[in-house]
Automatic annotation (TrEMBL), chain A:
Keywords: ER-Golgi transport, Transport. It is found in: Cytoplasm, Perinuclear region. This is Trafficking protein particle complex subunit 2-like protein. InterPro entries: Longin-like_dom_sf (IPR011012), Sedlin (IPR006722), TRAPPC2L (IPR044760). Transmembrane segments: none annotated. It comes from Psylliodes chrysocephalus.
TrEMBL record, chain B:
This is Protein brunelleschi. Keywords: Golgi apparatus. Residues 1-22, 143-170, 317-337 are annotated as: Disordered. Residues 143-154, 319-333 have a biased composition (Polar residues). It is found in: Golgi apparatus. Belongs to the NIBP family. Residues 232-314 form the Trs120/TRAPPC9 N-terminal domain. Residues 610-691 form the Trs120/TRAPPC9 first Ig-like domain. The keyword Aminoacyl-tRNA synthetase does not apply. Residues 405-540 form the Trs120/TRAPPC9 TPR region domain. InterPro entries: Ig_TRAPPC9_Trs120_1st (IPR058565), Ig_TRAPPC9_Trs120_4th (IPR058568), TPR_TRAPPC9_Trs120 (IPR058564), Trs120_TRAPPC9 (IPR013935), Trs120_TRAPPC9_N (IPR058563). It comes from Psylliodes chrysocephalus. Residues 1-14 have a biased composition (Low complexity). GO terms for cellular component: trans-Golgi network.
């Protein structure tokens, strides 16, 4: 079960941020923000490798005392970040991957919405509940 | 990375033997000789000290040739501070030992020199255990006082004991007391400083090398156990002689030798030792020392691979981004390094360095007391990976640092974060760096910190801004719109607090303003309110103003402006009032060639149809020294009343004087506000925004900094024209109640008057120059929807008179007279079509004509002539036809008096002002001629115009219809008046007759005749009326009176002069001839052509008839009378002034009343006559009046 999920735009500004516990949001924002450094670095090294990697999943970015941060980057450089409680041993890499894939498809849906202006922060309530469901694994 | 068995092996009871972490270490420092550079005394200025320190610090690499002839590359590390406790770890890692001491001091007198020497000695004592050698650099007084210091060694005995000791030692015995003093002048270049230092390093090296040799000669089996400081208690009671322990001793010593070799520049040996030591220590599970051996291995390998890696060299990560890290590492070492590398078997490949470091750190982590070693190792490892360009590895090493639980002072914790931040930024992890900087900043002021340092906190906060995508320039900030708003808001709030606590109220206000300006859309409404209130309290201490602030560090904080408080919903420059607008004085159109329009736009820009810039130029003009207005719509987004004071316009270009405005804005309601000002100069004026003073902050809200959504151009451009005069216009008439048809915004005043038809009046218009400049040009023009000719009759103004008034100096006024006349058609519209004058008024001639002219065709002829005569009438009256259709009701004429004036510079630049006075003339019906007819008068030269005049007013009217005769008409009554009028003389008609022979149509001639005759009547008849009740006077004209053919004959003079004699007597008009039945009356008549041309085919006709006075005329006279001679006579041609005579006799058989009609017919034209003989009556001239006979 993830405790926080974030969607970050091309310019590294947050487009969407949700935490299970709203009080911790700011704290998580700091963590997710610092994990972006690693995402950037991984992306740069990807470029260095020459071939554009098909793998969108970046794996674990950071392992903090209490949390693990996972990253996922779409081909359009939209970053998805999931923060997972590190005490949670149930979640395996595969689950994280599928979680990202679900988020990606949700994101694709919201971008297809004609009322959503690409680049704007996502404020759809429906989207938030969907993402929360993905995070809590109730989907 | 942390070992899961951490702390297991370390004794929890042992007292933490804390040394101070040195975060700045590089792995290369393992090979360096540690030298402390000390600043002694207060005489030496810190700046000078740091200058010398930098100079000394340049000498970090000394090449020394040893006894075997090999060149040793010795590294030196200079530090400014070294805690003594760190020496305790010298056994563990020899580079931690302080080997040398250089102290710098300045003295002016002997006492100070003594003091410096004493302090130097005390340092020597402090680091006694490890110190090999020391130097004391002394800066003496300049010039003359230098000589005594030079002489000091000579006169050593006379000086102070301590001082003499040092000086003597310097020169004599370096063996037992190794302080050598170097005397320099403060201003001297100290040229031998480097060589002295070189010598100093040499001495350190030789001592160290001798130690190394000494150690290496020891038998490895017998060496004592080397201990890390905290290990002392662990080995109490252990069997020191065990095989395991022996091995431990050997391993540790081997590692120690490796350290020494590394320091003395023997890389190969050190690698070998380290490798051996690692083997041995691994076997005995001596983790701590194994870690140290690995670290040493890494350090020496790094030295082989990256000999140039050193501090203070910024890493250009981006530049080397494309290159692979292995390639880079292979590139950087020089040829010697490569050679060594090849020969060295134990050297690690780059990838292994970080691996080994990782292992070492894991081993260290098993010991709680080795925390500092672990931390330092992490930093060193990170630096190597930075060099290798492995950002992620570096990040993981740095991440590890955070987890190490150290009992550190706050200061050291802060340093740790600062170093982390520095390294993070080196690997390009700017966010992480910013995070660390922020943590460091908060540490400075954490509650645990006994001495909070808000200044440092603020400085670090500032440094962390870029990592959060924060830029103190609000303009760029808003343009970029990047970053994480929630975090940015928090950071800015912290920054505000830090600035406030530091004492920079101005900065605090500035940052808060910045926060409100840039983060406004991201703030919730409660936050907005709270921050606004906070800003208010901050600005109470220091008012915010839009000027850049310069920090001590040289950082410039650009001004921030409250562009969202209040929100500007509209910014509209207003055109001047219409009558104040300057207008171009029209000049002749320039010839722009044959093309009026071209679709080709030269100079491009046709594609982007309406770019923002093009719309910024406003299409109206402002006038110098005239109040200019910009309308703002402001919305207060805060839930409380907001007072905005000192609002002004921000302008560029021409000089502009703005009037400050103050407004109190209620929450959430858009309030309109007008900002005024005067342009004090002509030219182009740029309106770039407005300034406010609210919440204690002065802001310059420029349009180009407004949110993009509001869509303002960067500025508005207005052309300001030179000063123009201003006229105040007033009239002597009351203003009109309504401004209806004439919708002209220029109208400044109005004048309305009611006039009866035919009445005239004059209106005085007063023009006052209300400006500072004289009026030098004035044009007056009257406009209306009427035709110009008619308009001229109604409104009249003397234009030539106006120019006499010019120029009108400021403050003066002039009067202009405007004449009004109520023009009307006094004739009832349909009267002429069907004359309804009763039969008794009509002459017998009418009936005779009807009979004489065969019916059918005549009416049609009449009709057509009337139709065309109507059009002829309209050519006179013009637009009046529509206007007067509803007669006799009241009608209203609207007009406009247009004033065009200018003066002073405005005139010279061809601008003027226009204003207009609305004129309303209500025309009331006075009288109307409902019917008219003409009757022959008693005198041949006159006729009677009989008019039915209706008084359309409700008052009694006195009508003067001839100069002598007046009559009173009651209100709404009508009466009939005969007016004797002179007949239309032939002279007026001659023109027509000359054309008689030409091919012209009857009707046209008739019209022309009609016109001439009606003009004739109009000229002669004027009906002067006078309303007795209201004393209004006026003149009614019969303009456009329409006459029938019959009337025309009466009106105009006959072209033929008649001379009729009966029995030789000339007939007098209105005279009855009395005779007896049976009398023979001799009729003699002659016709004289008074025209200028010859008349042809004239027929003279005499006809008798009886008028029964009841409308019946009897022409059957065969039984009543007889004539002798012809009653008809043809005259083939009649020359001008020629006379045609005819004679006949008549005998009346029965008594009665007879009449005789004598007429002379001329064919209208010859062709007509030929074609249609029935209509031979082209022209009939009658002898009037008809002759009456009373036969008894």
């Amino acid at each position: 079960m993830a405790v926080c999920a974030a969607i970050i735009g091309k310019d590294n500004s947050p487009k969407f941020f949700v935490t299970i516990n709203p009080d911790e949001e700011l704290q998580f924002q700091y963590r997710v923000l610092s994990s972006l450094d690693i995402v950037e670095d991984k992306l740069n090294s990807g470029v260095k490798g020459g071939a554009d990697t098909k793998e969108l999943y970046l794996g674990m970015l950071l392992s903090l005392e209490a949390h693990k941060i996972y990253g996922y980057v779409t081909n359009t450089k939209i970053k998805f970040i999931i923060v997972v409680d590190s005490t949670n041993m149930v979640l395996r890499d595969n689950e994280i991957r599928s979680m990202f894939r679900k988020i990606h498809s949700e994101y694709a849906d919201i971008v297809s919405n004609p009322f959503y202006i690409p680049g704007e922060p996502i404020s759809s309530k429906n989207f938030t509940t969907n993402i929360k469901n993905i995070m809590t694994g109730t989907v | 990375m942390r070992s899961s068995v951490s702390y297991i092996l370390s004794s929890s009871t042992s007292e933490p033997n804390m040394s101070h972490p040195d975060y700045d270490q590089y792995s290369h420092d393992h090979a360096a000789l540690l030298v402390l550079v000390k600043h002694i005394g207060t005489q030496l200025k810190p700046k000078l000290f740091s200058k010398f320190f930098d100079r000394i610090n340049k000498l970090v690499n000394v090449r020394i040739t040893d006894s075997t002839g090999a060149v040793r590359n010795i590294l030196i590390r200079y530090v400014k501070d070294h805690p003594v406790e760190n020496n305790d770890w010298g056994d563990f890692q020899t580079h931690r030992r302080l080997l040398g001491l250089i102290s710098l001091g300045k003295y002016d007198c002997q006492q100070e020199l003594n003091e410096i020497c004493r302090v130097h000695e005390s340092f020597k004592v402090k680091y006694n255990t490890t110190l090999f050698d020391s130097r004391c650099i002394l800066f003496g007084p300049t010039k003359n006082s230098e000589s005594p210091t030079d002489e000091n060694p000579v006169s050593s005995s006379s000086g102070d004991s301590e001082h003499s000791e040092t000086t003597i030692e310097k020169f004599t015995t370096p063996s037992n007391f190794k302080t050598r003093a170097l005397f320099y002048e403060i201003t001297s270049p100290c040229s031998d400083l480097e060589s002295q230092l070189n010598e100093f390093v040499n001495s350190l090296f030789w001592v160290l090398d001798s130690k190394r040799v000494e150690r290496s000669r020891e038998k490895l089996e017998r060496v004592s156990l080397l201990l890390a400081p905290f290990e002392k208690k662990d080995f109490v009671g252990l069997d020191m002689e065990s095989r395991n322990n022996k091995k431990r001793c050997t391993g540790r010593m081997t590692k120690h030798l490796g350290d020494l070799c590394l320091q003395t520049g023997m890389l190969t040996e050190s690698l070998n030792y380290y490798a051996q030591a690692a083997e041995i220590l691994k076997s005995v599970n001596d983790w701590l020392w194994l870690g140290a051996a690995y670290e040493g291995l890494c350090a020496s390998s790094a030295l082989v691979l990256y000999p140039d890696m050193q501090r203070n060299v910024p890493l250009h990560r981006n530049a080397s981004l494309q290159e692979g890290s292995p390639r880079k590492s292979s590139q950087t070492p020089p040829a010697i390094g490569l050679g060594i590398k090849k020969s060295i078997s134990n050297a690690l490949v780059p990838e292994d360095i970080s691996k080994k470091y990782r292992e070492a750190i894991i081993h260290y982590s098993k010991y709680q007391n080795a925390g500092i070693i672990e931390t330092e190792a992490s930093f060193k490892a990170a630096r190597i990976t930075v060099e290798q360009n492995h950002a992620l590895q570096a990040a993981s090493f740095l991440q590890n640092v955070v987890y190490i639980n150290l009992q550190l002072s706050e200061q050291e914790k802060i340093q740790r974060f600062e170093t982390l931040a520095e390294l993070y930024s080196q690997i390009g992890f700017c966010r992480k760096a910013a995070f660390c900087l922020r943590l460091a900043a908060t540490r400075y002021v954490s509650p645990q910190n006994q001495a909070p340092n808000w200044g440092r906190c603020y400085a670090l906060m500032l440094q962390s801004l870029p990592g959060h995508h924060l830029n103190l320039d609000p303009v760029e900030m808003r343009a970029a719109d990047q970053g994480w708003p929630a975090l940015q808001i928090q950071l800015m709030q912290e920054l505000v607090v830090a600035a406030r606590r530091t004492g920079h109220s101005a900065l605090a206000t500035r940052h808060m303003t910045f926060l409100l300006q840039t983060m406004w859309p991201h703030l919730s409404s409660t936050e907005q309110k709270e921050l606004a209130v906070q800003l208010q309290s901050l600005s109470a201490q220091c008012e915010g103003s839009p000027v850049p602030l310069v920090l001590d560090s040289g950082l410039v904080v650009p001004p921030a402006n409250l562009t969202d408080i209040p929100i500007c919903a509209a910014f509209v420059p207003k055109d001047l009032q219409p009558h104040l607008r300057p207008r171009r004085i029209e000049c002749d159109k320039l010839d722009t060639g044959p093309f009026l329009f071209t679709p080709i736009h030269f100079g491009g820009g046709s594609l982007d149809r309406r770019s923002r810039k093009s719309s910024s130029k406003l299409d109206f003009l402002w006038v110098q020294n005239e109040v200019c207005e910009v309308q703002l719509k402001l919305v207060n987004p805060l839930p409380f009343e907001l007072k905005v004071s000192n609002m002004r316009l921000l302008t560029g270009g021409a000089v502009f004087e703005s009037v400050p405005e103050t407004i109190v804005l209620p929450p959430d309601i858009a309030t309109s506000l007008t900002l005024n000002g005067w342009a004090r100069e002509s030219g182009e004026l740029e309106l770039s925004g407005y300034s406010t003073h609210t919440l204690g902050v002065k802001s310059n809200c420029r349009l180009r900094h407004m949110p993009v959504s509001s869509n303002y151009p960067p500025y508005y451009k207005v052309q300001v024209v030179p000063a123009l005069p201003l006229l105040e216009v007033s009239t002597s008439f009351p203003p009109s109640v309504s401004f209806s048809n004439f919708h002209d915004e220029n109208t400044v005043t109005s004048a309305s008057v009611s006039l009866y038809h035919g009445e005239s009046t004059e209106c005085i218009i007063t023009l006052k120059n209300a400006s500072e400049v004289p009026v030098e040009m004035l044009e007056i023009e009257i406009n209306s929807i009427l035709e110009p000719s008619l308009q001229e009759q109604i409104f009249r103004c003397d234009n030539t008179e106006i120019n006499k008034f010019l120029p009108i100096p400021p403050g003066e006024s002039v009067n202009v007279t405007l004449y009004f006349h109520s023009v009307a058609n006094f004739l009832a519209p349909n009267a002429s079509v069907s004359p309804t004058i009763p039969q008794d008024m009509s002459s017998g001639m009418f009936s005779s004509m009807n009979t004489s002219i065969p019916g059918g065709s005549i009416p049609s002829r009449f009709n057509s002539s009337f139709r065309s005569s109507n059009s002829g009438q309209s050519s006179i009256a013009g637009g009046l036809t529509t206007l007067f259709q509803q007669q006799p009701s009241t009608s209203v004429i609207e007009g406009q008096l247009k004033l065009k004036y200018s003066g002073a510079e405005g005139l010279s630049s061809e601008y003027c002002r226009t204003c207009s006075v609305f004129l309303m003339l209500e025309m009331l019906p006075s009288l109307q001629v409902t019917n008219w007819d003409v009757l022959p008068a008693e005198i041949h030269s006159q006729f009677y115009l009989v008019l039915d005049i209706a008084n359309l007013t409700t008052q009694e009217m006195e009508l003067q219809y001839t100069p002598m005769k007046t009559m009173l008409i009651e209100g709404n009554e009508s009466c009939r008046v005969p007016i004797p009028v002179d007949r239309c003389p032939l002279s007026k008609l001659t023109g027509l007759y000359q054309e008689l022979n030409e091919d012209s149509l009857d009707s046209r001639n008739e019209i022309d005749v009609n016109k001439i005759c009606s003009e004739h009547i109009t000229d002669l008849v004027d009906l002067r009326w006078h309303l007795l009740g209201t004393d209004n006077r006026g003149i009614a004209l019969l303009k456009g009176i329409n006459l029938t053919l019959r009337m025309l004959d009466i009106v105009r003079m006959s072209p033929l002069n008649w001379e009729v004699k009966i029995n030789g007597d000339i007939i007098k008009a209105q005279e009855e001839i009395t005779c007896e039945a049976g009398d023979c009356l001799n009729l003699k008549m002659s016709v004289i052509n008074s025209l200028q041309k010859t008349l042809q085919q004239l027929t003279l006709n005499i006809q008798f008839y009886q008028d029964y006075e009841n409308g019946t005329l009897n022409y059957r006279m065969d039984t009543r009378l007889a004539t002798t001679g012809c009653t008809k006579k043809s005259v083939s041609s009649l020359e001008p002034q020629a006379k045609a005579d005819h004679e006949c006799n008549v005998i009346f058989f029965t008594p009665g009343y007879y009449k005789m009609d004598i007429q002379c017919c001329a064919p209208e034209s010859l062709t007509v006559t030929r074609v249609n003989t029935l209509l031979s009556t082209g022209h009939i001239w009658r002898f009037t009046p008809t002759v009456s006979f009373q036969v008894n």
